[in-house]
Amino acid sequence: MNLxxxxxxxxxxxxxxxxxxxxxxxxxxxxxxxxxxxxxxxALRRKRSACMLGTGAMTDPYIPLESELGYVRGALSLAxxxxxxxxxxxxxxxxLRDIDLLQAINERTKCVxxxxxxxxxxxxxxxxxxxxxxTSARFAAxxxxxxxxxxxxxxxxxxxxFINDTEENILGILRYCAEAKVKGVICFGMGVTLREGNxxxxxAQLDRVFPGMKEQYIRTFGLSYENTSPRNAELMRLYHAFxxxxxxxxxxxxxxxxxxxxxxKSDETQLCLF
Length: 274
Fold this sequence. Notes:
The protein is 45% helix and 13% strand.
C-alpha cells in the first residue's frame, strides 16, 4: 500500500517520476489518501488470516508531511491491533519516531524496516538525495533499530555509473551494514534504470549538479532503460563476497521470501523477549 503519492525528498534518480505511474500532478505536490486508514481497517477486519503488510515501494512513507498527518503511525497501530506483520521502505530516520510500534509488532509477529543506502560519502549523498537525511543518519537509525530488536534490510540501489560506482563507496556502505548487523542487502546490479519521466528529470539534475555527466550517459547508454555500470561485474563480486563473509543475506529471492513470510510468535517466545 502507498498512503501518499509523490515525494519531496528530491532524489535525482527517482523511478517513481516515470510517466507509466500516471502522476497527474507535480511530483512534489503530495497526494494524500484521506480514507486510507478507514479502508485499511476494513480490509484487516475482513481478512481470515493475518499476513505481512508493506508500504514505501512508490513513496517514502516518512516524507515531512507524515510528521503532521501520522498516516503511517496509524497504519502501524492497526497492524498491531489486528495482529498483522509489517515491513516498510524508507530513506528517513523519521522512522525512529515509531520505534515503539515497530518493536511491539515485532514482539508479536514480525516487523522489518528496509533502508536505502546509495552512497557512503556525505557530500555526495546531499547531491543525490538532497532533502532527506544523509547516510550516516540512516546508519545511526539502523543501529537503534537493531538495539530495539527490529530486523533490517538494506537496499544497495541505485548505484549510478560514473558517480558512486566505486569500490570505496560499495565497501563503505557494506561496512555500515555489517556494523549495524542488518539481516540482508538487496542489490539488483550496479546501475540505474531510466525511463520516460524520470530520465528527463535525472538528466536535468545531472546538468545542475554534475556538468557534462549527461553527455557521458548519452554516449555510453543512449536512451536505454538499463544503465549498467562498466564496473558491474567486479563490484557485484565484491558485494556478494562481503555479504557472505559477514553473514548477511544477499540473494534477492531469499530476502523477498523472508519479507513476505508472516510469522506469529507464541506466548512463550514473547515472554523470552522480556
